[in-house]
Amino acid sequence: MNSLTSIASILLAAILTNNMVLSKFLGICPFLGVSKKTGTAFSMSIAVTLVMVVATAVTWPIYTYILYPKYTYLETIVFILVIAAIVQLIEIVLKRYIKPVYQALGIYLPLITTNCAVLGITMLNITNEMNYLESLFNALGAGLGFMLAMILFAGVRGRIESSNIPEFMKGLPITLVSAALVSLSFLGFAGIGG
Q1: What's the pLDDT score for residue 62?
Q2: Residue 78 Cα distances to 48, 55, 117, 118, angstroms
């Protein structure tokens, strides 16, 4: 039962308290770039979540059994290469079998390779000395937190589109102010989880 509580705590913390976008400020580029439509934000979030979990599943054993303790200095470059390979594989699968999602994501799919939230979660799992199962659930929670942030912000941006905004605030200024307010709203979850 203690293990189940620990996993639930890790999931809650990754989704709400330690949200990669809203509290760690990782993954801001897709957060601002793909959050104009809820459908695209959801598709991007699914892809990012998948990449986070698969990248964690591959990088944790590589670090633990190959890089540690002699070659830890190679962690960043190895993790980037693994993430790039995973994204390419997912892109090939989507292009071949799920064309609508592939077309909806467009240029943003290859950009997952450079999404610092994906690299961040793989490295944070190592830094926080999580075991394999904890790392996988932390990655899943980080992906779900990314999805929550993206969908919430897509909703906010939808409301902004239909609002009467002063001319000087239109575009990027109101988007950044809105992102800051959404981020502040997540401070209410401080203390929940681990």
Answers
A1: 97
A2: 19, 11, 16, 13
Three-class SS string for the chain?
A: CHHHHHHHHHHHHHHHHCCCCCCCCCCHHHHHHCCCCHHHHHHHHHHHHHHHHHHHHHHHHHHHHHHCCCCHHHHHHHHHHHHHHHHHHHHHHHHHHCHHHHHHHCCHHHHHHHCHHHHHHHHHHHHCCCCHHHHHHHHHHHHHHHHHHHHHHHHHHHHHHCCCCCHHHCCHHHHHHHHHHHHHHHHHHCCCCC
Mean pLDDT of 63-90: 94
Backbone angles phi, psi at 172, to 5 degrees: -60, -40
Buried b / exposed e along 71-84 (16+ C-beta atoms within 10 A)? eeeebeebbbebbe
Can you say whether the dihedral through the CA atoms of 164, 170, 176, 177 is positive or negative? negative
Work out the pLDDT band at 41, boundaries 50, 70, 90.
confident
pLDDT value for 193: 52
Q: How confident is the model at residue 148 (pLDDT cuts 50, 70, 90)?
A: very high
Tens digit of each residue's pLDDT (9 = 90 or more) over 65-76 = 999 999 999 999
